[in-house]
Amino acid sequence: MLAQGLLCPVPEDVPRKREMLIRHHVAVWDVIASCEITGSSDASIRDVKANDLSPVLSSADIAVIFTNGGKAYELYQKFIYPVNGIQNHKLPSTSPANAGYSLERLVETWTEIRRYI
């Protein structure tokens, strides 16, 4: 499958997705290491323990950080930005719960990343 606006086909399985990300120098990491959550509702997230991104940021040449959705952005700003001082760019959530964005609109918005790779 080749989504409109993408540089390469979207891999179907995790190993190929990992290979694609590495090839394009993209790292993926969760803001949250653990939390309490009901279902998949971001609004129910509580007792957050943030991931420590220091090891990754100190050993890799990170040019830019993007967050996937408003909650990830909010939690990054609260827990991680004060530690590392690196701003992040908020992108719309790719969650199926984000009904405000069609796939085409998500792809269009997320292509902002291409300016950095």
Separate helix tally: 4
Percent strand: 15-25%
Please estimate the helix content: 25-40%
Low-confidence stretches: 1-5
Q: Characterize the quaternary organization of these chains.
A: single chain
Total count of domains: 1
Can you lay out the helices and strands and say which pair or pack?
Blueprint: H1 14-23, E1 32-36, E2 46-50, H2 54-59, E3 65-68, H3 70-84, E4 88-91, H4 103-110
Parallel strand pairs: 3-4
Antiparallel strand pairs: 1-2
What do these coordinates show?
The protein is 33% helix and 15% strand. It is α+β, with helices and mostly antiparallel strands and 117 residues long. It has one domain. The strands form 2 sheets. The protein has a two-stranded antiparallel ribbon. Strands 3-4 form a two-stranded parallel ribbon. Helix 3 (70-84) links the parallel strand 3 (65-68) and strand 4 (88-91). The radius of gyration is 15 Å and the shape is globular. It starts with 13 loop residues before the first helix and ends in a 7-residue tail after the last helix. Mean pLDDT is 85; it is low at 1-5.
